[in-house]
Amino acid sequence: MSTVDPAVERRRQALERMQRPPRPGAGLWILVLIYWSLWALFAYSLADTIRYPIAEAYLPPSLYPDNVAPAWFFGVFVGSFGGFIAGFLLSYVLKELYGLAASTWGQFASTLLACAVGFWRGAGDSWVAPLRVGSFADAPGTPAPDWDFIAWLGWSAQYWLPASLALAALCCAGLAWRAHRRHAARAERIRRLLAEGRRADAAITEVHDTGVEIYHEMRLRFVVRFTDHAGVERWVTKTGLFDPVRLPRVGDAALVWFYPDRADEEDQILVGFANGDEPIA
Asked: How far apart are CA 235 and CA 222, in angstroms?
């Protein structure tokens, strides 16, 4: 039991979060390191596990490694399952700090880079080197056919595969940075509206389900009606994510913050809710 209306308390907390953005702490970087290490372990173990089938592509049979269970075989499962579990927790933390898009692309970048480094080191440590690169020779001075395309592809996988993963990680990191910049600009716009904008009572007039659900939250498009400082009645359309147990409904009260000189610009209007959900810009 509480003597405070839960909706009022949620609204207070939401506004406080908007006005004071969270900052990453040491715990986040420890979690990122664990996540990165698990995926690096997965890739290292994978490179060790496939050393025998890869060797068949570029080595003569006399130089094949022993076809036994690889030493790092279980690292594939430990790294992948551990990475998935740590990833669920990391995605939740990053989403609160940097937004959904930035956290998603950032995780992709971290995973790809970890796999690139892990595979590169795993191949370097466990793959059997040929006696002469480019030849199937099994003894010094022995005539042997040159490698075909498949042989070159298999041997050089220790280089081109990590390089491709690293390049993809760089692209994902760029997308994450772009999404973070957009998220930060939106958060700053919200904080300025809360601090400088004029507040007015509003009411929800339409609610439409977009059919999209993210992290068990429904993405809804809604319309609110308010009267601006000059007495002009306006309608503004926004889209946001909502907890299924606290969905906005037609007729619910709402609040808007706007600049009087830009009351006709929808992206400069902030909408808040009576149920305490975070305002939507």
From this structure: 10
Residue 46: pLDDT band by 50, 70, 90 thresholds?
very high
Residues whose CB falls within 8 Å of the CB of residue 89, separated by 6 or more in sequence, listed in order = 31
pLDDT at 2: 53
Return d(Cα 267, Cα 189) in angstroms, integer.
Answer: 9
What is the sign, positive or negative, of the torsion defined by CA atoms of 120, 126, 131, 135? negative
Q: What is the pLDDT of residue 178?
A: 92
Q: Mind spelling out the 3-state secondary structure of the chain?
A: CCCCCHHHHHHHHHHHHHHCCCCCCHHHHHHHHHHHHHHHHHHHHHHHHCHHHHHHHHCCHHHCCCCCCCCCHHHHHHHHHHHHHHHHHHHHHHHHHHCHHHHHHHHHHHHHHHHHHHHHHHHHHHCCCCCCCCECCCCCCCCCCECCHHHHHHHHHHHHHHHHHHHHHHHHHHHHHHHHHHHHHHHHHHHHHHHHCEEEEEEEEEEEEEEEEECCEEEEEEEEEEECCCCCEEEEEEEEEECHHHCCCCCCEEEEEECHHHCCCHHHEEEEECCCCCCEC
The 10s digit of each residue's pLDDT in 6-22 is 655 555 555 555 555 56
Average pLDDT over all residues of the chain: 84
- Whole-prediction pTM value? 0.76
